[in-house]
Amino acid sequence: MSKIIFRQLFDAESSTYTYLLGSNKEAILIDPVFEQADRDLKLVNELGLQLKYAINTHCHADHVTSTGLIKSRLPHVKSMIAKVSGAKADIHLLEGDKIHVGDLEFKCIATPGHTNGCMCFYLEKEGVLFTGDAILIRGCGRTDFQQGDSGRLYDGVWQKIFTLPEETIIYPAHDYKGNTSSTVGEEKKLNPRFTKSKQEFIDFMKNLGLAYPKKIDVSLPANLECGIDYKPQ
Ligand SMILES: N[C@@H](CCC(=O)N[C@@H](CSS)C(=O)NCC(=O)O)C(=O)O
């Protein structure tokens, strides 16, 4: 088993976490942000890794993915996203698919609700889960656009995430308060949204009252094209 490389990288403008994982010289970027492509590719290079995949947990509404830009620079890199997201990608993922990067094996777990195409990526052996916006630390992704559905989110989290070992480390796609990670056990006990009953959760999400993301009109169409040919204004 080769050494695992792991980096949690932050985009301050969108409060997005991008994750770089490497094993046996191969690497994957999870949820890379357009404006951070230079930073991410420089790091991949510095660490002597060959980027194999650029993957998105869902079609983001608040920032443009850098997968298209990365592919224009490194044409061998394959982009991936859940098939049901409707977004373009080289590889469309389904529930239960496995992604191999060096010695790492990610299992795809569909968790629709924030969007219809949300997927978590689970490193079972290492006990690590990349949750996208399905679970945020002490929170969760909003459900008021992109076929959002609070009931589906609640059921998916309880049935597919909260049934994983309690010590599983959770890495979300965003944090707005400076948190970096959590665990399944911690969120099951302390997440103020998912500790509600399903009906209370649905009512709470209906009244969240968040303004639409500032970049939604640019991000959604660009991300449906996997960020390919996206030119910032
Ligand atoms: N202010 C930000 C958008 C903040 C936001 O809506 N975040 C989303 C995830 S990105 S679509 C969310 O689900 N938040 C849940 C929450 O409870 O905060 C912007 O303008 O980009």
TrEMBL record:
Residues 15-174 form the Metallo-beta-lactamase domain. The gene is ETHE1_2. This is persulfide dioxygenase. InterPro entries: Metallo-B-lactamas (IPR001279), Mito_Persulfide_Diox (IPR051682), POD-like_MBL-fold (IPR044528), RibonucZ/Hydroxyglut_hydro (IPR036866). It holds the Pfam family Lactamase_B. One of its GO terms (molecular function) is metal ion binding. Coiled coil: none annotated. It comes from Boothiomyces macroporosus. Keywords: Acetylation, Dioxygenase, Iron, Metal-binding, Mitochondrion, Oxidoreductase, Transit peptide. It catalyses: S-sulfanylglutathione + O2 + H2O = sulfite + glutathione + 2 H(+). Its main location: mitochondrion. The keyword Metal-binding applies. GO terms for cellular component: mitochondrion.
